[in-house]
């Protein structure tokens, strides 16, 4: 059986303490030899700079292949292209292209910048057309949703959008987190029927803070099953046990997916290494010595 491949998602740190935590996680996860590591992107100049600084440092100080997230939120096309150019100049050749959400929060209608891209499909086309000879060189990942996105108008529309992302030049999709493997396999079936051939990688959440997970799930309208609520019940003040529960839940989910032939996994690490490392081990991936970064 082929060796599984993994990727890890991080978010850019806001403080020195958070920065130290991120780099500890990055350094501990580098030896697992992920296919790529991605760094999220928020609205507003300072968050954008943090994403840029983080991916640039990954290029300079590690052997990792960073993928920088990019959204259409609150930015003109020129501003978006300035970010694409900055990524390229920093040596970042993989972009996770997203529409993003209204700065007023998810659930509020997304209003594009008057001179901006309207959504991820236009953004992908824009990346591919960026200094044309260069745009073609980017690897592009996009988002997909095992449970319908809050803006969804049904499976047919969602698959038409995902197919349009592929046709615009996306290389792979990464899913929103989910806890029921059947939701993911349904997405794969619907995608296949719609002629989508790019890989759709399951996004596995490693959030041990159940209150935080509940907030995230509410925002993205992901289902938290009753059995999961039961598992965390009464553990608000017991982070150690919550970590163990989270490790088991992730292990069980990845095992069920692997049993059905899934070989690629994307982990939402929350900038922590331990849970991702233990899940990778259970997938058969052990850390290897890291060659010195060039
Ligand atoms: P799309 O898939 O393009 O569209 C979202 C919804 O609108 C879908 O239901 C789709 O069917 C519908 N839709 C889109 N275009 C059309 C159309 N032309 N006609 C009709 N319906 C349409 N957000 C951030 O701000 N920063 C991040 O770093 C970030 N990283 C993410 C990483 C992953 C793996 C995922 C899954 C999500 C991430 N998000 C991030 C959240 C994402 O920005 C939101 O989910 C956003 O609401 C949708 O972005 P999208 O690119 O999926 O949009």
What does this structure look like?
The protein has 294 residues and is of the alpha/beta class. It has one domain (5-283): TIM Barrel. 45% of the residues lie in helices and 14% in strands. The chain is built from eleven helices and eight strands. The chain has an eight-stranded parallel barrel, surrounded by six helices. β1, α1 and β2 (36-39) form a beta-alpha-beta unit. α10 (239-259) runs parallel beside α11. The longest helix is centred in the C-terminal third of the chain and has 21 residues, at 239-259. It is globular, with a radius of gyration of 18 Å. It starts with a strand and ends in a 12-residue tail after the last helix. Bound molecules: flavin-adenine dinucleotide.
């Amino acid at each position: 059986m082929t060796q599984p491949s993994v990727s890890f998602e991080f978010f850019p740190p806001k403080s020195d303490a958070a920065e130290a935590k991120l780099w500890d996680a990055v350094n501990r996860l580098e030896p697992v030899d992920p296919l790529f590591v991605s760094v999220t992107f928020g609205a507003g100049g300072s968050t954008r700079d943090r994403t840029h600084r983080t991916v640039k440092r990954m290029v300079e100080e590690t052997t990792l292949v960073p993928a920088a997230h990019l959204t259409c939120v609150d930015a003109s096309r020129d501003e978006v292209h300035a970010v694409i150019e900055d990524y390229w100049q920093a040596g970042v050749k993989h972009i996770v292209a997203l529409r993003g959400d209204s700065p007023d929060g998810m659930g509020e209608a997304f209003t594009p910048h008057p001179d901006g891209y309207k959504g991820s499909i236009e953004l992908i086309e824009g990346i591919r057309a960026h200094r044309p000879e260069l745009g073609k060189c980017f690897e592009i990942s996009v988002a997909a949703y095992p449970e319908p996105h809050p803006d969804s108008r049904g499976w047919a529309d969602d698959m038409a959008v995902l197919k349009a992302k592929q046709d615009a030049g996306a290389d792979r999709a990464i899913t929103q987190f989910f806890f029921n493997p059947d939701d993911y396999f349904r997405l794969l079936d619907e995608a296949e029927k719609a002629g989508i051939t790019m890989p759709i990688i399951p996004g596995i959440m490693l959030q041990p803070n159940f209150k935080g997970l509940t907030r995230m799930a509410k925002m993205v309208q992901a289902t938290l099953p009753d059995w999961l609520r039961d598992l965390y019940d009464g553990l608000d003040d017991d982070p150690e046990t919550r970590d163990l529960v989270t490790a088991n839940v992730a292990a069980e989910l990845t095992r069920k997916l692997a049993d059905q032939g899934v070989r690629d996994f994307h982990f939402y690490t929350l900038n922590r290494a331990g849970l991702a490392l233990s899940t990778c081990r259970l997938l058969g991936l052990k850390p290897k010595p890291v060659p010195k970064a060039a």
